[in-house]
Write a structure and sequence with these properties.
Elements (H helix, E strand, L loop, with lengths): L8 E2 L9 H6 L4 H8 L2 E3 L5 E2 L2 E5 L5 E5 L4 E4 L24 E3 L2 E12 L2 E12 L6 E7 L1 E2 L6 E4 L2 E4 L2 E2 L1 E2 L5 E2 L4 E9 L4 E22 L2 E9 L13 E9 L4 E4 L3 E6 L2 E5 L8 E4 L5 E4 L5 E4 L2 E4 L4 E4 L4 E5 L7 E6 L2 E8 L4 E7 L1 H4 E4 L1
Antiparallel strand pairs: 1-32, 2-12, 3-4, 4-5, 5-6, 7-8, 8-9, 9-10, 11-14, 12-13, 13-17, 15-16, 17-18, 18-19, 19-20, 20-21, 22-23, 23-24, 24-25, 26-27, 27-28, 28-29, 29-33, 30-31, 31-32
Length: 368
Amino acid sequence: MNKSAKRLVCLAMMLAVTLSVTAACADSGNDVLQEEYSARRITNFSNLCRGGELYLDSMQRLNFIDFTSMNSSLICPYPNCAHADPNVCPSFGMNICPVMYENNIYYFTSQVEYEADGPVLKTYINKADIDGTNRMQLAEYDNILVADYTMLLVYDDKFYFCPNTAVFDEYANMSTSDRSDMCLYSYSFTDNKFTMIEKLCEGYSCGAWIYGMYDGEIYMHVNYSDEPYDYMLVEQQDFTTEFLKYNPQDNTVSRLDFAVNYASGGYLLTSEGVGIYDKMTLHFPDGKTKDVPWFEDAVVYNGYIFDRISQRAYRISDDTMYVLNTDDFMTEVVGYENDMYILRSYDSDAGGYAYAAVPEEELIGSQV
């Protein structure tokens, strides 16, 4: 974005700011924190929290950028740290699904242990202080595979996730080609407890996507195949896609007869099914609905639907479409703070994310 280049904060440069930015956010008050954490999705490419975002750099160090100041900092309290040694700098080692909750950062680790009955994948949830220090291992669960691509949904005092069940082959190696299943789990911060809620699918190459929450229910989909993966690529796998929702209040999972595209901030975007691209249905916080154009990668902020792929914005109030004043489809709207839209793009030259805070008149271009 040429007009806002001066606002860009290139993460690869690792600005020398103190952790006080992150610590100040931790003092927001319980009411604010509870409201913010009530429905928050965490993925390997999005981890919004406390008016900013946690992110990993090219060295897998954990950082935080504050969207108000647009300053970024490593999760490390040591002023003279070179941030190069994983045995010294606490910004290392929290790269699998880091979750900022209250005044701590939670994250996963795992290791394979060989027991009398065979190998077991031990998966642990760990906790550190907000600056990455004082780490401790908490709950353990066997044979669930949590990786950087695993999605989480934080709601109240729990987070929900859909890991693959770990499977080992005859040589005691973890196998990604054998038939397995995928289940919905929760972890309670209050009780320090994992709970397996329900098996969602079983087959080959299982995958899950959590969209978010709408009207108190978590929306997601699963993919699976009845055919093993062909490493010679002679035949493509045929996949089944199922859309689901989970109600935490009555602990039920329901299959849906429509496709889900987005669920966050009180809005839900749905369509008639996979591969149907003529329109979408926007569900408002009050339950009302309206038809809107199809968007491939949509988010809703401040009365607009933004699409990263087409780089367009649709104003919901009057059904007006606009072109975005952005460089390419790699630029996306990730937040709205202090009357400014937060843009994130990938700087291939620097090998890291770049952020910009821009006003509406600078972001929204001409009407289509």
